[in-house]
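Lab notebook, bench 4. The sequencing result for the construct came back, and we need a structural model before the next group meeting so we can plan mutations. Quick request posted to the team channel:

Model the 3D structure of this chain.
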Amino acid sequence: MERIDPMVTAAMGRRAFLRRAGVAGLALGAAPALLSACGDDDDDASGDFGTLNLQLNWITNAEFAGTYVAVEEGYYEANGFSEVNVVPGGPDVAVEPAVVAGNSKMAYTISESMSGAVAEGAGLKVIGAGFQNNPFGVMSMADAPIMSPEEMIGKTIGVQAVNDALWFALLEINGISEDEVNRVPAGFDPAPFVNGEVDGWFSFVTNEPNILRAEGIDVVDFSLSDFGFELYQQLIITTEEVLENEPEFLVAALKAEIQGWQATIADPELGLRYTQDIYGADLGLNPDASLAEINDQIDRMMTTETTDEFGIYYMTEEDIAANVATLENIGLPIDPSVYTTEILDEIYADGIDLL
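Done. Here's the predicted structure in token form:
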């Protein structure tokens, strides 16, 4: 078996970056150079919001297909924005410091880095959760499937060191002792898994499995969220100051973002087109893997009974409490007041179908 393409390895290295993003460097109060070049979001009057710098927490792959649709199909323009800068993330970009510094009034991040930044004094607010279910899971070969935590017992699983907190929490939640599973320290290139050196691989179930499937490798997976591990990802964050002083700005921006995702849910090929032809055109993305990732995000991460009732990105008190409990379990305690639905409540005041 050939070594996995370097672009695949880069995509899989996201966890190392995201785990430290927003914590390292926060005390310096300096935004990354990439973001500094973009300038601050304009402070125009309500209904004429000027430019939005929307900071992503990773490269412009299929993970943000709905964002691209929102921009290219004119949803942001219809909500009062003259321009949207979709700012890619990457190994040298820390999202939380960029938001605190005012470079982006709204940004995507993950629960772990958000909680770590808040613990270090960042005045952040979570105003929505794109991934209602946690995208981490364990991948295995279809001819030797591992479909639950219990089925990992006696097996060898490759786990990245930066994901140890999630891994050990999964074991604890499911009553499995550490010595019952042979955890092998791993990098982000899944070549050891593909070559049969391990039985399973800790990964994003929306990403790595679909990349390998597109290469003709028959894999299966189970998601942590199916086995008691509740932790939002793809959080939309802002600052306490912006939430207090510019709620109309946030309502307009998040409404446009949701409209883009609702359009993508209705037509995933639309999101694929903008991913492949514009935003991810230089990334060497496999279109089959990209479309599978979009569909998996929609079906497995974004749409749930909660979103069917309250709308995508919504966070109920019960679900927030479960997320807070999980963060405490992995050593990142946070106050539930960091999460707020006031922007979403305004957006969905007349119904959850925004199209």
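Confidence is low (pLDDT under 50) at residues 1-40.
Will bring this to the meeting.
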